[in-house]
Amino acid sequence: MAIVLEGLSQCPLCGQVLDRSNEFIMTPPLTSNTKDALFIFSDAGIHVTCLNGHPQKESLLYQMQQSDETRDAANAVCIVDGKLITYPDDYLTTGMLTSDLHEPLVEFNFIILNRNNNTNGTNGMSLFLY
Length: 130
Ligand SMILES: [Zn+2]
Known about the structure:
Blueprint: E1 24-26, E2 45-47, H1 48-52, H2 57-71, E3 91-93, E4 112-114
Antiparallel strand pairs: 1-2, 3-4
The structure holds zinc ion (ZN).
Residues 11, 13-14, 16, 47, 50 line the site of zinc ion (ZN).
């Protein structure tokens, strides 16, 4: 979740300072991809009034919901073996790779893996993301 310093942090949409005089929400770190349409909203404090008028609002709320669901321990089921991941250090997720629901990459958003699952019999998973 974003860290907002009231009176110092700025809304990425209007550039105004965030404080108690104007309601704002805080978003999770959704993406580090600067070319994604939701990058500007990632890990930020955003005025509710600014967000309400923005065309990406529904996309942001949808991706935040998806993110919340993968953070819920009850949903921490590995896509490889279908088993619940009970040890937090074993949990690995791809997060939001794209907010564009028309990109093929969207199928890999928020995939949950148990890092101990592997197919070659060695300890640990070999997962490479570039
Ligand atoms: Zn604003």
